[in-house]
Structures are given as structure tokens and as C-alpha cells.
Write a structure and sequence with these properties.
38% of the residues lie in helices and 15% in strands. With 343 residues, it is α/β, with parallel strands linked by helices. The strands form 4 sheets. A 7-stranded parallel sheet has the order 3-2-1-4-5-7-11, with helices on both faces. A two-stranded parallel sheet has the order 6-13. A two-stranded parallel sheet has the order 8-10. Helix 4 links the parallel strand 4 and strand 5 (121-125).
């Protein structure tokens, strides 16, 4: 029996590329959506994709936020994995560049899916930040355990910065899906995945500059001896686990019309400064040589998350923080040596 045809958006991104790789490795046929024709060849020729070239086709959708952008693109597709979403970029108009694009891209995907009889499920990358208002970070609450039933409704602007706008955009988009299910009653079901702080190796990173971005750029300075002041919630999740969850969510055995939190070491979470001890445990020579000198620090904001629903539905727990850090540092060390050799 031929495997299902899966549509994936965001394949040029950190999690999206891993999702495409895992889906192809499991034998699915993939229709991968990119924004630019120039992205196709580099993705198709990547060593982890080239071996599956017969099972992947690329489609260019320049403006995913445009209604009708996916019309025809979903023909024959069974499941849509929608990972593409605007980032928290600094801009002079958060509504134009963060909030509206997030909502419009989601609406575009759902409107095309509802007109495509073959689609039986849509899986959307949401975020654990939808559980709480960003102002919660400034409170003293460390006892409340948040679950997938929680949803931030404090989304009104004005927003003091791009991150506040991003948090609001993710909450609004998640709420929009709930409204869509109630009002439109589509022929397909929807799963929303809520990852926490995504870290771990990046399949697309080719040097230290491309590795040390986003959340990785926030935590790697710890093992480089940098002392930081701005706290980060202690809820990591391995990027590979997030990608794996997207592919697992294709299966009908995973209950639909539900939201699932993805986070490791739940419910208590972790302390970021433990990265120093993990580095010393697995890479003592690199610590001794000064390649990863350690001694840095990053304050942890405790945030308790209930992932029991996710573990019951998917049948596995997210990779431990210790193993996640080991894998990230392994790539960091390899790229550091590559840089040294090249110079």
C-alpha cells in the first residue's frame, strides 16, 4: 500500500527541516512548501533529503498569507503539517509584521484544507507560550502547573516589544483554531503542538554562526563562561522530539482536535546552569582545554508544565535535558573544530 502524501510548510526552518527528514525516513511522500525557488535545490540536495528524492516534491508559495495561496497545492494530500510562522522580529509595526501574518497564514491553510476532501488532519505548530500571558513571567508564581487546557486571553496591545507581540500572535492563532473547529466543523480534525524552549542540534547549521541563533544562542553562552541577567523559563525540549511529534501526529491513533504540550523533564523543569555540569561530564577534555570553559550562568524562571496528556497519547516522553544538552554540545564542539581547522 502506498504511503500517504503529506504537505509540510516551513521545511527550510529548524524544526520543519527535521520534520521533513523524519517523514521521508518513515516512508511518507512529502510535498514540501517553500517561499522561494532558490531554496529548493539546497534542500533537495541536502544529504539527508537526497536519498529520498523520489518521495519529495517542492512547491513554491511566495505569499502563504494570501487567501487561496494553497488552493490546488493540497490536492491528494492526507495530512497537512503546518510549521511556517513569523518570528519575533523587531519592527515598527508588530501588527503588520507579526500578528496579522500569523493569523493570515493559518487562515489560508485552513481555508484551502476545508476545500480539499482528501485532507483528514491538519497539524499546527503552536507554542507553550500560548498557555500564559507574558506578564506572568514577572510574577512570583512558581507553584501553578499549566496544562494544555490553559490559554492566554491577555492578548491586547500595545506591545512593548516584539516578543510580547509574538506571544500574543501565538495565543490568538491557537484560539482561532478552536473557533474554526466550533464554527466551521471541518471534515478533518486538527492537532496543535505546543513546544516549549526548543534547543538541540540543527541539521542545517554549517558553522558556529548558524548554530548560535535563536534559543541556542541564548543557552550556549553558559558553557562559554558568559554570565547573563535575563531569566529564561526552565522548560527545554529537543528539536528532534518536536519534529518527531509532528510526524507521529499523522497517525490516526493520536486523538485529534486536541492540543499537546511538548517539554522535557516535566512537570518540574530544569535549571539552565546545569549545562556546566553536563559539559564537564561528557566533554571533560574540551572543558579542560578551554574549548568550552564553562562557568557561565543563566537565571532560570521556574515554569511547571503538565505533559501527561501528551505522553499518554504519543506513548513516549521527551528526551531528557541532559541528553539534549549533550547532543547540542557535540555539534557545537564539532563546528568549533571545523572552524579552527579552516582558519
Amino acid at each position: 500500500m502506498a504511503r500517504e502524501l503529506i504537505l509540510i510548510t516551513g521545511v527550510s526552518g529548524y524544526i520543519g527541516f527535521k520534520t521533513m527528514r523524519i517523514a521521508l525516513a518513515q516512508g511518507y511522500k512529502v510535498r514540501a512548501v517553500v517561499r522561494k525557488e532558490a531554496q529548493v535545490e539546497s534542500l533537495r540536495s541536502h544529504s539527508q533529503i537526497a536519498r529520498h528524492v523520489d518521495n519529495v516534491e517542492f512547491v513554491v508559495v511566495p505569499d502563504m498569507a494570501k487567501m487561496g495561496a494553497f488552493d490546488g497545492v493540497m490536492e491528494g494530500v492526507s495530512v497537512v503539517l503546518h510549521l511556517a510562522s513569523p518570528l519575533a522580529i523587531e519592527t515598527d509595526d508588530y501588527g503588520r509584521d507579526i500578528l496579522r501574518p500569523a493569523m493570515n497564514i493559518e487562515s489560508s491553510v485552513l481555508s484551502s484544507a476545508i476545500m480539499t476532501p482528501s485532507v483528514r488532519r491538519v497539524v499546527i505548530t503552536s507554542s507553550a507560550v500560548t498557555l500564559i500571558p507574558i506578564t506572568w513571567l514577572g510574577t512570583t508564581d512558581t507553584d501553578t502547573t499549566f496544562s494544555s487546557k490553559d490559554l492566554n486571553t491577555d492578548t491586547a496591545g500595545p506591545y512593548p516589544n516584539s516578543m510580547a507581540a509574538y506571544w500574543a500572535s501565538k495565543a490568538l492563532a491557537r484560539a482561532h483554531v478552536h473557533e474554526f473547529l466550533t464554527e466551521r466543523k471541518p471534515h478533518f480534525d486538527i492537532i496543535q503542538l505546543l513546544p516549549s524552549v526548543v534547543i538541540g542540534p540543527d541539521d542545517l547549521a554549517t558553522d558556529l554562526a548558524t548554530l548560535q541563533v535563536g534559543t541556542r544562542g541564548m543557552v550556549l553562552p553558559i558553557v562559554k563562561g558568559v554570565k547573563m541577567d535575563m531569566p529564561l523559563v526552565g522548560t527545554p525540549v529537543l528539536a528532534d522530539d518536536v519534529a518527531k511529534a509532528h510526524v507521529d501526529a499523522i497517525k490516526s491513533s493520536i486523538p485529534g482536535n486536541k492540543d499537546y504540550i511538548l517539554s522535557s523533564d516535566a512537570p518540574e523543569g530544569i535549571a539552565w546552569n546545569a549545562m556546566n555540569e553536563i559539559a564537564k561530564k561528557y566533554f571533560p577534555q574540551e572543558v579542560e582545554s578551554g574549548l568550552i570553559p564553562c562557568g557561565g550562568s543563566l537565571p532560570t524562571r521556574k515554569w511547571k508544565l503538565d505533559t501527561s496528556d501528551t505522553e499518554a497519547a504519543f506513548g513516549w516522553e521527551c528526551t531528557s535535558f541532559e541528553e539534549t544538552v549533550r547532543r547540542l554540545l557535540e555539534q557545537y564542539i564539532a563546528l568549533s573544530r571545523k572552524t579552527t581547522t579552516a582558519s
